[in-house]
Amino acid sequence: MKTDVLIIGGGIVGCAIAERLAREGIAACLVERDVVGGAATAASMGHLVVLDDDPEELSLSAYSCARWNELAASLPAAAEYRRIGTLWIARTEAELAEAERKRERLVAAGIAAERVSAAQLQVLEPALAATLVGGLRVPADAAIYPPVAAMWLAQRAIDAGARLRCGVAVEAIGDREVLLSDRSRIGARHIVVANGCAAPALLRGVPVRRRKGHLLITTRMQPAVHHQLIELGYMQSAHGTNTESVAFNVQPRATGQLLLGSTRQFDDHASEVTPRLLQRLVARATEYLPGLTQMTALRAWAGFRPATPDHRPLIGPWPSCDGVWLACGHEGLGVTTALGTADLLAAQLLGQELPFDAAPYAPARFAASSEHCHVV
Amino acid sequence: MSSEVRLFIDGAEFRVPAGISVAAALRHAGYEATRRAFDASPRAAFCGMGVCFECRVRIDGSERLGCLERVTDDMDIRCDA
Ligand SMILES: Cc1cc2nc3c(=O)[nH]c(=O)nc-3n(C[C@H](O)[C@H](O)[C@H](O)COP(=O)(O)OP(=O)(O)OC[C@H]3O[C@@H](n4cnc5c(N)ncnc54)[C@H](O)[C@@H]3O)c2cc1C
Ligand code: FES
To answer: Which of A128, A61, A141 is nearest to A90 (CA)?
Structure first.
């Protein structure tokens, strides 16, 4: 069999790329070893958020959030796209100063953001602890249910002519072809590696590490929350290199349940929940939402974020292998940035005008660590 | 020792055998559902052993698993969880 573009991995990133290429009329084939929208995509919180810590992260996430917003009207109800907005919360005067810097950066990028006083915080979110000093509200941020969004993108790709092979893995990448676990081969002019944390298993030298994260979902009888609530210390937790960190991050689901996050751990590759981390997560959440002491936890799980050394995804050609492209390493923001990734990769692959500068995401920045593909 | 206890389900009084679970008491009282899902479809005890969480009810104000709680006299059970 032959195709123009073969995409490895049916997470939200691979699905978004397949959809985008199929709409361009390209013969695309998506290969997923397990289920579409499983892996990190299913474990995720689905917060569609503009992060401004790094200017590159800001342009990719702002572009992507705008794209999600354009799709909002066509998404199925089960994707639960809701513009709940983000409320960044300050506990100290220093964090409040950070809120102001954040506001300036966002506003400069054309994203509406407004400062919130301690009194306004209590009006917006009465369940928050009264000791909190204020925050920043970003009304355009949204939330989505990632597995359904991924399946919907895959279906749109199929409707536009793409092929989906589920239940079969790519075992090796060769010269303009891949070898599948059923021993068949698919020839492709371009091969897109979008298999998240598993990328290094196919291409040695791809600098992606697993960063474990826990989430917990409550029953419906919880304090009412209206925005996605995140502590301003979050970016320190996300971008720090600590082996272990916990930050307050809570999302109200459409059902009235609360999704509580989040933890970050390197060097723990066990997919089981780590009770000690879950305890820290709940303790942290309770400091901000004291009413949670009465909560019923329905389920808790852990997943793995595909992390790169500089916390930016790898989008573009992999220098040491002709015809091989990377779209992986989205760490804790890949649901948000899947659409921007798809547009950027498709534009590069098709030689179209780029939607934004590709250089910051170019896998070539880690070229020293890359090696030649193993030929099947 | 009395072989029955008196309890309240959504405010209505019932007598059920002593020693049974709240989930069993609901069935005994003719309730098919312990709660409603978000789309208002009925949910009822499924695993009977504290795993599926489908038997959630509010007992004396707190959310509990009906399959794991024993009935007691004057218990106030609400099927609004
Ligand atoms: C706890 C947690 C919370 C998160 N919260 C958010 C959030 O709120 N907002 C946000 O934007 N992001 C969030 N993320 C990050 C986000 O989930 C990821 O960045 C994103 O899902 C990555 O998508 P992906 O498609 O690259 O990878 P995945 O979803 O992991 O998909 C990779 C796919 O490739 C398949 N695969 C692997 N190897 C092969 C092979 N050899 N052949 C064929 N198929 C293969 C796998 O089966 C899998 O389906 C969170 C992540 C975690 C863990
Ligand atoms: S019936 Fe499953 S938890 Fe009670």
So the answer is: A128
- Tokens in use for A243? 């082996």
Residue A1 pLDDT level (bands cut at 50, 70, 90): confident
pTM score, two decimals? 0.94
| Tokens linked to A237 | 């937790």
For A258-301, write each residue's pLDDT tens digit.
999 999 999 899 999 999 999 999 999 999 999 999 889 999 99
Which of B35, B36, B38, B54 has the highest number of chain A CBs within 10 A, making it the mutation to test binding with A?
A: B38
Q: How far is the CA of A79 from the centre of ligand 2 (A)?
A: 27
Q: What is the pLDDT of residue A238?
A: 73
CATH number of B4-78: 3.10.20.30
DSSP helix/strand/coil, A15? helix
| Rounded distance between C-alpha atoms, residue A334 and residue A328, angstroms | 9
Question: If DSSP codes are grouped into helix, strand and coil, which group holds residue A211?
Answer: strand
Q: How far is the CA of A220 from the centre of ligand 2 (A)?
A: 16
Decide which of A283, A307, A331 is a domain's last residue.
Answer: A307
Specify the residue for token string 């291409």.
A203
Q: Are residues A177 and A192 in the same domain?
A: yes
**Quick one: CA dihedral A21, A71, A82, A253, positive or negative?**
negative
Domain of residue A254: give its range: 86-139+209-307
Q: Can you read off the two tokens belonging to residue A227?
A: 């925005």
Same domain, A181 and A198: yes
- ipTM value: 0.81
Tell me which residues have their CB closer than 6 angstroms to ligand 2: B 45-48, 50-55, 65, 67
**Which tens digit of pLDDT belongs to each residue from A7-17?**
999 999 999 99
pLDDT for residue A334: 98
Q: Which of A277, A307, A337 is the last residue of a domain?
A: A307
Residue A228 near residue A247 (C-beta atoms within 8 A) = no
Out of B38, B53, B63, the one facing A221 most closely (by C-beta) is B63
Instruction: Tell me, yes or no, whether A194 and A343 share the same domain.
Output: yes
